[in-house]
Structure formats: structure tokens, C-alpha cells
Amino acid sequence: MFDTQVYAAKESDFRKIYNELMSLLFKISYRIVNDEEAAEDLVHDSLIKMHEKKLVFPSMDDAKYWLIRVVKNASLNYAKRKIREYRAYERVLKEDQRKTDSGETELLKAEAVKYTRSALEKLPVNLKMEYAELNYKEIGRVLGITEGNVKVRVFRAREQLAKLIGEDDVYLPQ
Fold first, then answer.
1. Which pLDDT belongs to residue 165?
2. What letter does residue 164 receive in the DSSP assignment?
3. pTM, rounded to two decimals
4. CA–CA dist 144, 121 (Å, integer)
5. Which residue ranges in the chain fall short of pLDDT 50?
6. What's the CA gap between 124 and 165, in Å, rounded?
7. pLDDT digits (tens, 9 = 90+) for 66-89
8. Helix (H) and strand (E) counts in the chain
9. Beta strands 56-57 and 6-7: pairing type?
10. Contacts of residue 79, Cβ cutoff 8 Å, sequence gap at least 6
11. Distance separating alpha carbons of residues 94 and 31, to the nearest angstrom
12. Looking at beta carbons, which pairs linking 110-117 to residues 24 or more positions away fall under 8 Å?
């Protein structure tokens, strides 16, 4: 009876596996990692792992499918790790885009808020009621008026506020 088993630790079988499968395994890895050097390293690592475990396969096809699975998984893990590394570098190297206000800007903003609140107090009661969480339709229901009437009141309130505040007198951040 002819022995078809493939012994990964046996030099002649290992050489046969290497010669027959290296090209295929490299192509699989390269398509995933898109880096020749990394693909070659991943394939070699997989072959070394097979050799060190002294695996015995019932046939050359079994060795082939085992190696394809190992190379594919190693390549996917490598690609994921590279993406994580890239994102980490991006976060570290990215400049802080947040704007910090100068003391002068903070003071101007505080004065604008104070001035606007003062102007709001001067509006007639029917124009300054606060319903911040409600939309126009809901405000109309609460007040017993139409949505259109609510829009008119808001427009009038804004007009009167603009007159009271004066566009040049208040700091408005961009």
C-alpha cells in the first residue's frame, strides 16, 4: 500500500509543500495585505508554524487547504492591525482642530449674552414666551393659535430684538 500522507516535519515533504504552494499562498496573502514583503513573511510564518507543529496531513490537498486557511487568517489579522495602527497614528499626529477663544472673545461673548437678555426683557410678553423644546405647531397648540401665527410672532420678536440690540453693538461669533 502506498503512503499518501504528508509529513510537515519531514524535509522532503516540507520542500514539496513549499515548492507547490508558495506561489498560491503568496498570491492569497498579497491580495489581502497589498504588500509584497508582508505577504511573503506571512506565508513563511505559516509554513514555519506547520513545520514546528509537525503536522501530518492525509494528502497534499489537505495540507494545501490548511495552509490557505492559516495564511488567509494571518493576512486578515495583519491587515486589521495595520488599519488600527494607521488610525492610532492619525489620532496622535492630527493637530487639535478645536478653537480656543481668547480672553477678549470670552468677554465679548459674555457682554453679548448680557445685552441680549436685557433686550429680551424689553419685548412685549406675547413675543418673549419661551418654548425652546417645542416646534411651531406645538407652540400654536399651547397658545391656542395657528402655526402661521406663531411664525409671525417669532418674526416680529426677532425684528424687535434686532432693533433693540443693534447689529453693530453686539459681538456675534462666526
1. 72
2. H
3. 0.52
4. 23
5. 1, 174
6. 15
7. 999 999 999 999 999 999 988 888
8. 7, 2
9. antiparallel
10. 32, 33
11. 30
12. 111/170, 111/171, 112/170, 112/171, 112/172, 115/165, 115/169, 115/170, 116/161, 116/165, 116/170
